[in-house]
Write a structure and sequence with these properties.
This protein has 257 residues and is of the alpha+beta class. It has a single domain (3-256), classed as 4-Layer Sandwich (Deoxyribonuclease I, Chain A). It is 26% helix and 27% strand. The protein is built from eight helices and 14 strands.
Length: 257
């Protein structure tokens, strides 16, 4: 049976990624579905080879504020349905959630908020977490098969970042943020990378300013989660840490039906 290959990548600006060879990388990797986060652009700001990429349909969710946030999903097959957000204006106005439904599963492509800038943004992040969990578990109870991917902006456990002790009071590794990932897993979802790999030193984000990638002093904050009713179809999970072009690297999974 052929494997359906899904990739996810916070590109830290799709126009910047385009200048660094994004379309060439896509042509080489040939994913069936690619979810990107932090596009920082509306579709009308993008060149045609991004909005009409050969062999793919492209869908976008953009923030009202230009140059901020945003997600996009590219797929070889046309989705059965596409929607943006979860029906809550406070969150949907930032263009952080894009939902594409296929025959076999529904993909939630999400750029979760960062809580580091202020106590207010940390509260926004926690509120976003809570609202999304309510939404996705409701759909799971209805029998949907669900894939969640994107930049979660939290490292789950101590092996998911290089310096856990130094960061235990920093947003991205706070107990309440980490507990939310516990709640997601307890609600019926699988951390796909940890399904296959139990060891440390596997990261998806490195600080640009300190050249942390050169030392692999990073954080694993980008994830693919799948609902437990897809466990039998999950065949692989990977972190493509050698791919340049962003402070994050792509991640991927394979599903076989």
């Amino acid at each position: 049976m052929p494997e359906t290959r899904l990739l996810s990548w916070n590109v830290n600006g799709i126009r910047a990624a385009h200048r660094k060879g994004f379309t060439d990388w896509m042509a080489q990797e040939k994913p069936d579905i690619l979810c990107i986060q932090e596009t920082k652009a509306h579709p009308d700001q993008l060149p045609r080879d991004l909005t009409h990429m050969a062999g793919y349909q492209a869908h976008y969710s953009s923030a009202i504020r230009r140059g901020y946030s945003g997600v996009a999903t590219y797929s070889r097959r046309p989705p059965l349905a596409v929607s943006s957000g979860i029906g809550i204006d406070r969150f949907d106005s930032e263009g952080r959630i894009l939902v594409t439904t296929f025959d076999e599963f529904t993909v939630f492509n999400i750029y979760f908020p960062n809580g580091k800038s202020s106590p207010e943004r940390l509260q926004y992040k926690m509120d976003f977490y809570s609202a999304f969990l309510d939404h996705v578990t409701s759909r799971l109870r209805q029998g949907e098969k669900i894939v969640i991917c994107g930049d979660v902006n939290t490292a789950h456990t101590a092996i998911d970042l290089a310096r856990p002790r130094e960061n235990e009071n920093i947003s991205g590794f706070l107990p309440e943020e980490r507990a939310w990932i516990d709640h997601l897993i307890d609600s019926g979802f699988i951390d796909t990378f940890r399904f296959f790999e139990k060891g440390g030193d596997h990261y998806t984000w490195w600080d640009y300013k300190t050249r942390a990638r050169e030392r692999n002093t990073g954080w694993r904050i980008d994830y693919f989660f799948v609902s437990e009713n897809l466990a039998g179809q999950l065949t692989s999970a990977c972190i493509l840490s050698d791919v340049p072009g962003s402070d994050h690297c792509p991640i991927g999974i394979g599903l076989t039906f």
